Amino acid sequence: MTARTRRREKQLLAFAVYPGVTPLDLIGPLTVLRNLTGTRYRTVVVGDRTDRLPTDTALQVVPAASFAEVPAPFAVIVPGGGPATVGAMADEALVGYVRTAAATAQLVGATGNGALVLAAAGLLIGRRAAVHWAYAEQLEKAGATWAREPWVEDGRFLTAAGGAAGIDAMLALLARLKDRSSALLAQLFMEYDPSPPLGPLGPDRGDPDLAVRLRTPRPRAGRSEDHAEPRRTP
């Protein structure tokens, strides 16, 4: 039995990744959904190719399957990636895959500013959606209504505003796909009980200069000194 055959036997939740993705927006939800063990659902990370991809940290991601190998998943979910996601809106392979997969998917989701990719695929017109606050205006220009909530459901669409909110949304999804007890156990195991040491912050709370600084362009993924790839010798 091939790996591709095994993937068809499960209801797949496909996380579509691209260069510059934010690991927290991907790994947080995956950590929650690993508790789907024992159900007919399974997660898989997919990309245009299965080559190693840079993220916006020192971590790199290797998709387990290509878009072509998972053409019709149960769910397609796009994690955010800061400025890289804006560039990904013009990635024909990514946007085309999301649009095609969403046509038959029972769940379409995004974390952080991943909702911009859904918008680029024309999927959020007239819908309420959560997105990282720094990209709310851009989301609304694409025809969506920004929901000022950590996460929101609109029909089969599930969107979360940021990395931590993505964990919240996936806990709710785990409770739906499996059971509430499993979601509670997942939350307890992760010791997920946010209490930021500097208090709650948001675009309308705290030092307004912080929001300005966050909107200042940063080095592209894999280009900063801290996160550059090590040199390879011949």
TrEMBL record:
InterPro entries (UniProt xref): Class_I_gatase-like (IPR029062), DJ-1/PfpI (IPR002818), INH-QAR (IPR052158)
Protein name: DJ-1/PfpI family protein
Keyword flag Membrane: yes
Chain residue ranges for the region called Disordered: 196-234
Record-annotated DJ-1/PfpI domain positions: 15-175
Signal peptide (residue range): none
Basic and acidic residues bias: start-end ranges: 222-234
One of the protein's GO biological processes: regulation of DNA-templated transcription
Protein source organism: Geodermatophilus sabuli
Keyword set, alphabetical order: Membrane, Transmembrane, Transmembrane helix
Gene3D superfamilies in the record: 3.40.50.880
